[in-house]
Amino acid sequence: MDHSKHARLSATELNAGVLEGATIYGPGDEKIGSVSHIHGVGPATQVVVDVGGFLGIGAKPVSVALDQLEFMRDEDGDVHAVTSWTKDQLKEMPEHVDP
Fold first, then answer.
1. 52 phi, psi to nearest 5 deg
2. Domain spans of the chain?
3. CA nearest neighbour of 39 among 49, 30, 53, 28
4. Domain 3-83 is of which CATH architecture?
């Protein structure tokens, strides 16, 4: 997928209503997870990404800083993100547990 042609999201679009469910692509353009939910607002925002699993079963939730993901819309209007993190790197992170 050529992400260079996709529209980057504005700061006002970086909210739970827009980001939840977005597919996350790694450095090799492989699907590495999806956004479960977000915590916080502004520069301290954390994005909880479900990594691995199948159809949402067995996925491991990990928390990454919003600025580690570049969110955009494709030609169909679907929101997704790209990151330099690999699936293996995310799987090695501590599991996120909501308080």
1. 75, -160
2. 3-83
3. 49
4. Roll (2.30)
Q: What is the pLDDT of residues 51-98, one digit of tens each?
A: 987 766 788 999 999 999 999 999 999 999 999 999 999 999 999 998
Q: CA torsion, points 26, 29, 32, 33, in degrees to nearest 10?
A: 100
Which residue in 28, 21, 29 sits closest to 1, CA to CA?
Answer: 29
Helix, strand, coil shares of the chain, percent, nearest 5, are 20, 35, 40
Please enumerate in sequence order all residues whose Cβ is within 8 A of that of 25, keeping only pairs 6 or more positions apart, or say none: 1, 3, 31, 32, 80, 81, 82, 83
Residue 55 corresponds to which tokens in the numbers above?
């159809």
Prediction pTM value: 0.89
- Token pair for residue 70? 């570049």
